[in-house]
Amino acid sequence: MFAYIVLAKGTKVGPAENAIFSKDAFSWAAFFFGPVWLLRHRSWILLALWLLLHVGMFFLARIGIEITYLLGLEFAIAILLGLEAGPIRELSLRRQGFIMANVVRGKSLQEAEYRHFGTLMDPHLKQETRKDHTNPSPEMVGLFPSFRA
Q: Is residue 100 part of a domain?
């Protein structure tokens, strides 16, 4: 199962047109088509950083650094971009005014949509969600329960 982060436009969860589901998994599109993926998701700062890294790699190649090291660096950049594609997309959407509405799990996007919109229609429907840790119980110290002798 995959985790999908549901982002909604505005200050509250509204109609289905406002919801965007972001899959929290490795992105093969970001791995293979890094700069195009960054353009598509309007991550301008990261695109500029990607270009700056590649200009630096070009100059490293000109001064005689072996190509295998540069290919390894290129592969590492692609892996990092593929791993961090979900959070990059969420950050881009948050800058556009989206807020996190829910986190749902599902085998596919359709199942995640069904679970999310099903809980909006019927709030008594049981669903795995993250607990709100803004007001932790007094028995908790960090992530661990306190032990009293």
A: yes
- pTM, two decimals, is 0.71
On whether the CB atoms of residues 27 and 82 are closer than 8 A, the answer is: yes
| Contact (Cβ atoms closer than 8 angstroms) between residue 136 and residue 144 | no
What is the Cα–Cα distance from 112 to 5, expressed in whole angstroms?
9
Is 12 within the bounds of a domain? yes
What ranges in the chain are assigned the alpha helix state H?
Answer: 28-32, 34-40, 44-62, 67-83, 85-95, 109-121
Which residue range forms the structural domain that includes residue 44?
A: 2-121
Work out how many domains the chain is built from and give that number.
Answer: 1
79-91 pLDDT, tens digit each: 999 999 999 999 9
